[in-house]
Write a structure and sequence with these properties.
Helix content: under 10%
Strand content: 35-45%
Order of helices and strands: EEEHEEEEEEE
Bound molecules: zinc ion
Oligomer: single chain
Radius of gyration: 15 Å
């Protein structure tokens, strides 16, 4: 599936080819702090299927407890996370689904690191709903 996306401020834009069957949610504690939220939703794309159209992401390399390093690409102006990838010569990019324009068509297929998921996340459907919100 062909998709396109951008960060919140529009400095970074990209397009990619992805497989909707590869959309996943990650509940690991690194994703919680990196997103400032409860989890990451991402989908992988191969290097040759990913094209940056404008802007250059800033990269933060995180080191996991296991010692594994992951490059986190984000917009240097607005901070939106764009992808995670290998630190050196990445062959795949794990795009952050919230930056993809077609994100409504990309529900997650799998969830990982559920042992560190926040308890309320699995029961979010029962929380009272408003059609609109207050400014965040
Ligand atoms: Zn931006
Ligand atoms: Zn994670």
């Amino acid at each position: 599936m062909k998709i396109d996306g951008s960060c919140h401020c529009g400095f970074i834009t990209y397009e990619a080819e992805i497989d909707p069957q590869k959309v996943g949610v990650c509940h690991c504690t690194d994703c919680q702090s990196l997103t400032g939220s409860a989890f990451t939703t991402s989908v992988s794309t191969d290097k040759e299927d990913f094209r940056l159209l404008s802007g250059q992401p800033k990269v933060y390399v995180k080191t996991a407890e296991s010692g594994a390093k992951r490059a986190q690409g984000f917009c240097p102006q607005c901070g939106s996370r764009i992808y995670a990838a290998a630190e050196v010569d990445p062959q795949t990019f794990n795009l952050r689904v919230g930056t993809i324009r077609q994100r409504r068509e990309l529900p997650p297929i799998t969830q990982s690191w559920c042992r560190s998921a926040l308890d309320w996340v699995m029961d979010l459907g029962s929380v009272p709903r408003n059609a609109q919100g207050r400014p965040k």
